[in-house]
Amino acid sequence: MAHIFQVGAGSGGMPVLDMICRDPRVTAVTLIEPDILKPHNVERHPFSWLDVGQPKAETAAAWLKERRTDLQVKLFVCDLLDRDKQPEIEQAAAACDLGVCAADNEVAKFHFDGLMRRAKKPWTLGEVLSGGIGGFVHWFVPGGPCYGCVASYLQRATDVDKSPPPDYSQPGGPIQETTVPAPMAAIHAVASLHALISLELLGKGNAYDPGFTSLLWSLQKVPDVFDEAFRPYRFRVPRAADCLICRSAGSDYRAATPEELDVALDQALARLGRD
Amino acid sequence: MGLLDSDLGKRRLLTVEIPVIERYNEDRDPDFKIQLVRLGGTLVLRYKLQPMHNLYQLETRLVSSYPMVPPETRGLTPLKHCPHLLEGQTLCMWRQGSTRMTSRWDPAQFTCVFAVQAAWRWLACYEVWHETGEWPLPEAK
């Protein structure tokens, strides 16, 4: 009797969802996915041309129900950051046994991390590298390193992107690089690892310790990046004492009500400038 | 779900960003203190820097999705076009890639005052470039 809470049912998220939900221990799944299936998705998705134009969440639910009639599926056809849906999303996170993140942008990964930490639930994250040259799988437990700790550590410890610098002619925040789409086989290789680690974590809970917290798996030999294909790189990332993402959870404002936060913020803005 | 309209964002401001701004301002000449202004869903830091002989007015914007996306800093004092100046007088201070692997901004380690310090370094480079035609630091890769 396990409840999975997953964000993302794209080309990487759908195979993870499918593999995890085949496990008989999984009896319920809550899925957040805002997108509709587009023609260019079909190449890397289990869905067909007949599904183009349909919400991916609904197509995913139909796929699961065709294989697991007993599975309870709840959908949020909205963005993970949708402000109006946050109370329901928080409830879904609190009700789950395991979170599975298959989001492809940093803001969503950080947001999912916050949800899982507040709900005190374990979760996993899969990431396919540009071009499908390899991929990461990370797992997280309450009290362990947060996504901020891991991202900060890996930003310095690994160098897996040798693409040319982005074009800076369009300022205004992060620049979307032109990435090389990964082939479906590479996506499924990383998704399989993601599903395996998720199911192991679900079964063993706090006793889970495969000897790493982040696994990087090379799928191709790439000069200056990966010396050889099909090689695992294991990282045991510690929780960073100075991490600004998870450190503030123990601050003075932890128990403050929304009204108290507003008052404190207004006072700070009055001290530091004009509001 | 942003910096100013979520409890999470407000806690980040109250426990991380505002304390470091107040520490920065402590005992500093009033003309050089950071002023913090709310503009809709964005917070703006307004301040002056003088890395060498010239005084510059700048503003650093913390957009709604800050700190997951980096702050943007632009010069209010007119700057001569140079290789590291973007449209709208925005300072190119770090590689603002959209993935963890390509971004030099680290929300787990950096605060808005880091952006102010980065702007100071950028302006020091700008003054050298203004005199010599050479940017003294290597390109971001």
Structure write-up:
The complex is a heterodimer of chains A (275) and B (141). In chain A, strand 5 (123-128) and strand 6 form a beta hairpin. Chain A has 275 residues and is α/β, with parallel strands linked by helices. Chain A starts with a strand and ends with a helix. An eight-stranded mixed beta sheet of chain A has the order 3-2-1-4-5-6-7-8, sandwiched between helices. Helix content of chain A is 33%, strand content 16%. The longest helix of chain A is centred in the last third of the chain and has 21 residues, at 184-204. Chain B is of the alpha+beta class. Chain B has one domain (7-132): Ubiquitin Conjugating Enzyme (Roll). In chain B, the strands form two sheets. A four-stranded antiparallel beta sheet of chain B has the order 1-2-3-4, covered by helices on one side. In chain B, strands 5-6 form a two-stranded antiparallel sheet. Chains A and B meet through helix 4, helix 5 and helix 7 of A and helix 1 and strand 1 of B.
Number of beta strands of chain B: 6
Number of strands of chain A: 8
Shape of chain B: globular
CATH topology of the largest domain in chain A: Rossmann fold
Mean pLDDT of chain A, to the nearest integer, reads 90
| Shape-level CATH architecture of the largest domain in chain A | 3-Layer(aba) Sandwich
Mean pLDDT of chain B: 90
Count of folded domains of chain A: 2
Question: Might you state the CATH topology name of chain B?
Answer: Ubiquitin Conjugating Enzyme
How is this structure best summarized?
The complex is a heterodimer of chains A (275) and B (141). With 275 residues, chain A is α/β, with parallel strands linked by helices. Chain A has helices at residues 13-21, 56-67, 86-95, 106-119, 147-157, 184-204, 258-272, and strands at 2-7, 26-32, 72-76, 98-101, 123-128, 134-140, 214-218, 232-235.
